[in-house]
Design a protein that fits this description.
Elements: E1 11-17, H1 26-36, E2 37-48, H2 56-60, H3 69-78, E3 81-97, E4 100-113, H4 118-128
Parallel strand pairs: 1-2
Antiparallel strand pairs: 2-4, 3-4
């Protein structure tokens, strides 16, 4: 997800499902989603809300305690991805996971990609090794 084998602006929709809290740099994933989706296309993100369940890295391989929705929306805005919809995804994890109490929810975010800007061109240059 950090380097998708797709051409810039080559897809209409990109979906990221329960991934951001498992990668070192969620921002890199968002940058890459932005790169591959054409202007006017859509990004769909489903992930866990930020939480304080400190046992999840051990149990599920999480690198982050969910996703901070406010930070992610700021980054999407900087990438010219307009948030169209944010909702709880209707999935609430309450109960017992591997002998531990859990209570967290997921969110769904739908964004629409704006026109490509200088940020995208810089990202493309980095990928091709032609950074100035």
């Amino acid at each position: 997800a950090e380097e998708l084998p797709l051409a810039t602006g080559s897809v209409d929709v990109a979906m990221c499902h329960m991934l951001l809290h498992h990668v070192v740099s969620p921002r890199t994933v968002l940058d890459e989603l932005r790169r591959v989706v054409r202007p006017g296309g859509y990004v769909l993100i489903i992930d866990a809300h930020a939480h304080t369940l400190h046992w999840t890295p051990e149990a599920f391989g999480d690198l982050h305690y969910g996703t901070d929705l406010k930070k992610m929306r700021r980054h999407l805005s900087a990438l010219q991805i307009q948030t169209l919809l944010v909702e709880d995804a209707g999935v609430s994890h309450s109960g017992n996971f591997i002998g531990r109490a859990a209570d967290f929810t997921n969110f769904l975010l739908l964004g629409q990609v704006g026109e490509r800007g200088s940020t995208d061109r810089t990202h493309d240059q980095r990928r091709s090794g032609k950074q100035r």
